[in-house]
Amino acid sequence: MYEFLVGNPPFEAEGHQATYRRISRVDLGFPSEVSPEAQDLIAKLLVKEPTHRLPLEKIPTHPWILRNAPRHSLQQYLPPQTFAALFSSPPGSGLSTAAAAATSTAGGGR
């Protein structure tokens, strides 16, 4: 996702040693063009400790995904009740709150 948005790998550096050092330290930086929501999602995925990463089932309800993915593609990955709860809210009415509530009731809050 980082490479798609930015155009180069997230830990790219001059030489293999420097790249490895950035990877091992999770030395992650973002250009100013990357939205705060995209930065948040990427940062939650690129966490060194696997158990602290954003769980796979929560990715479809992340605010950046909800704002940028076509609804028909989300419908494939979300349970019907979650999809309905997310998109029955009027625009600007706290979509992330609706997403959190819908995910916890759909069993995504594991």
UniProtKB/TrEMBL annotation:
MF GO annotations: ATP binding; protein serine/threonine kinase activity
Domain Protein kinase, chain residue ranges per copy: 1-65
Annotated region described as Disordered, given as residue ranges: 90-110
Entry keywords, A to Z: ATP-binding, Kinase, Nucleotide-binding, Serine/threonine-protein kinase, Transferase
InterPro entries for this protein: Aur-like, Kinase-like_dom_sf, Prot_kinase_dom
PROSITE patterns reported in the protein's UniProt record: PROTEIN_KINASE_DOM
Descriptive protein name: Protein kinase p46 g22
UniProt organism field: Nannochloropsis gaditana (strain CCMP526) (Green microalga)
